[in-house]
Structures are given as structure tokens and as C-alpha cells.
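Morning. Coffee machine broken again, so started the prediction first thing and wrote up yesterday's gels while waiting. Chain of 222 residues, entered below exactly as on the submission form.
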Amino acid sequence: MKLALLMVTCRERDERREETLADLAASDWGKGPDVIVRDDESASAPPFCDARTWAIHRIRDTWRRAIAVATSQEADAILCVEDDLRFSKHLWHNLQSWLPLVWLRGGGPYSRDPGHLWASLYDPGLERGVVNLRERYFVPARPGDVYGAQAIIIGRLTAQHVRDRWDAPGAGTNPDEKIARLASERTTLLYHLPSLVDHVQGPSTWGAVAHQAKHFDLNWRA
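Came back before lunch.
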């Protein structure tokens, strides 16, 4: 199973991004991101557009392009991460032994279509539905409540579906919610237990409410 890593970032986060890349390098991942998708620095806000509205527009556009880039990766799945994270020291080891990634190729109880996957390594504290402690995952009780795109693994086929359905009615406007809702059309949304990344606290580029991962342990190893 080949897994690529894609980082989404923006012009305001140069220093924070370097810190996140250093943290990734301190894990057992073994390399940097395969691709970094930045916001469009040539774009400028139209007249009468306030700073927050423009920031949200830029984030949406960056994630739209990131999903398109994900579809071009020569990998079974893509780990899409944001630029303000701490990573488990045993990130690679923990993922290599995680059953949902095995299901990606052979199908599984939560994959309605072979090759599809949406799985988050970051739990902001969602209510849990189905829980499997042995296989280290849970299914959110209400998929419509899913939010956050700090670290999501998306199958390449799922990324293609999300790309093609990006402007579908009812998909939502915030990119984290949009990606999850569209992915749920093809596969059940899953969360790794425990969280393998944590959110570094700092000012939001668009005024979002701060949150952190539940049950993150830097040294946890399966």
C-alpha cells in the first residue's frame, strides 16, 4: 500500500509550516511531504471584500486545488495535512499496521466501493458511534457533524469523487465539511484511535475557534 503525503499551507504560515515540517521529520515518516499546496499568492482581494471573507475564500480555493493534486499522486491513498501540527513519533509504524488501510485494497466492512477511504488521524472530540478498540478506529455517531481537516487519509479514488462533486448542491461550503460529506457518498467516515496528530495552538487565519485532539500521545505505539 503506497501512501503519499500532501501539505496544505498559506502565505501567513511560513514560520509555523517550517516548525510542522521539523516535527514531521522527527517522526518515523522518513521524508518530507510529496507535495506542498500553497494558496495563490498572485490573487488579491476584490474591492469591498473584508479580510475574513477573503481568507475563507483563499482556504476554500487552496483545498479545492489540493484535492485535484491528490488525484494525480501515484499512491493508493493520500495523507492530507495542515501546516500547524504535531505528529506521533511512530506515525508511519502506526499507519502500516492499521486495518482500514489494508481494507483500501481488498475492501472491508466500511468500504462500499473498493479503493475508497476517508479516515481522520485527528479527533476533535466527536461523539462516537461504532467503536473498535482492537482495530483502533471509531465511526462518528453523526457523520454530518464531522469537521476538521488537520490530517485526513483519502483514497485516490475518493479524491477523484470529491473533485468531481466539489460544486454539488448540499455539499457545504467549508472545505473540511465538504470533503467529508462528499467522501461519505462512497465510504464510511473513520477515525484512528488514538489521535496520531495534534493541533498546535495559534491564531487562526480566518477566525476559527481553536480546538485540539482528544487522546493524543506523542509516544504511543501500536
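Helices lie at 14-25, 51-70, 91-96, 99-106, 156-164, 175-183. Going to sketch it on the whiteboard this afternoon.
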